[in-house]
Design a protein that fits this description.
Elements: H1 3-11, E1 13-24, E2 28-31, E3 37-44, E4 46-50, E5 57-60, E6 64-67, E7 73-76, E8 85-86, E9 94-95, E10 101-110, H2 118-122, E11 127-129, H3 137-152, H4 157-178, H5 187-192, H6 194-205, H7 213-220, H8 224-235, H9 239-257, H10 262-268, H11 274-285, H12 289-299
Parallel strand pairs: 1-9, 2-8
Antiparallel strand pairs: 1-10, 2-7, 3-6, 3-10, 4-5, 4-7, 6-11
């Protein structure tokens, strides 16, 4: 897989969820912090996003907001409308009223906040992607499909909705990476740097290989010193440090999502010794691989 696809596959846990919510003004709704990543899509009407520590953000039809760390916030029809609702399971999906109607698609992803990928850590608390003509066309298309499935509940929707939510997450991240910004550091800069991107692809394609900086530099067709400098400047850590982090993220996914023996998981992420793997995993995740797997099964 390409770098972004493999990253999403590694950090995603559990099943995403979503729902359609219709509100008639006046309305104000709190969203407490959640242990995952949330999103809102304004389907029609308008509203305001009210972060606790920054200025309100006006949202119009077609706007998408992504909260990679599930930050607490509120939505309301006006900045000064009292917040009388709090998001919770089983709440009414439609609330009437005398004022203008707003329709929202809201949902969440479980992205494993502990020891997650640095790409997510780099994202701002609120990623706002305004609806602009001709921009983020793939994202708009998948949102349209998702809305039709959520609203229609047709045959096969239970399979279609999670797949579309996963696709929307990929397009959200792609749209953010494509936004114009300074490219001196961060993942947008890393993916735009041919040498750093080549080294990342090598690590993602074959995490079990005993990579050295010299070998990665050869793949990137630059000197060892050049790769080390550019990798650290964009990614924020040396190549082999990122390799170790990536291996532990993949190991966590294999433990969560497969029944592979610990020895097989160890080999898949570059460890010949199960003991050495267990030691590295505990150092990174704070728990032994077996305990991590048992805990993941209980949560599921």
């Amino acid at each position: 897989m390409d770098i972004l696809s493999s990253t999403i596959a590694a950090i995603r846990t559990g099943s995403p969820s979503s729902g359609l919510f219709v509100r008639h003004a006046p309305w104000g709704r709190r969203y407490p912090i959640v242990p995952g990543a949330g999103f809102h899509v304004v389907l029609d009407g308008s509203c305001w996003l009210l972060p606790p520590d920054r200025s309100p953000i006006a949202l119009a039809a077609g706007d998408v907001v992504f909260m990679p760390r599930g930050a607490d916030h509120a939505l309301a029809d006006r900045v000064d409308t009292p917040l009388t609702e709090t998001a919770h399971p089983g709440e009414p999906r439609v609330i009437g009223g005398p004022g203008a109607r707003s329709t929202l698609l809201c949902g969440a992803y479980d992205l494993g906040r502990a020891h997650t990928h640095p790409l997510l850590a780099e994202l701002p608390e609120f990623v706002h992607l305004p609806a602009r003509a001709g921009e983020h066309t793939p994202l708009r298309s998948v949102v349209d499909l998702l809305v039709a499935e959520v609203a229609g509940q047709s045959l096969g929707s239970d399979a279609a909705v999670p797949a579309l939510l996963d696709t929307m997450l990929l397009f959200l991240l792609r749209a953010w990476l494509d936004e114009p910004r300074e490219r001196d550091s961060g993942w947008a800069a890393a993916l735009s740097d041919p040498a750093v991107a080549a080294a990342l692809r090598a690590v993602h394609d074959d995490p079990a290989h005993p990579w050295s900086v010299t070998e990665l530099a050869a793949r990137a067709t630059v000197s060892r010193a050049t790769l080390a400098r550019r990798f650290a400047a964009t990614i924020g850590e040396p190549p082999l440090s990122y390799l170790a982090r990536w291996r532990m993220l993949l190991a966590a996914r294999l433990l969560r999502d497969t029944a592979a023996p610990l020895a097989a998981v160890a080999r898949a992420v570059g460890y010949r010794s199960e003991f050495a793997f267990a030691k590295a995993f505990k150092r990174h995740h704070g728990t032994a691989p077996g305990a991590y797997r048992r805990c993941s099964v209980v949560r599921t």
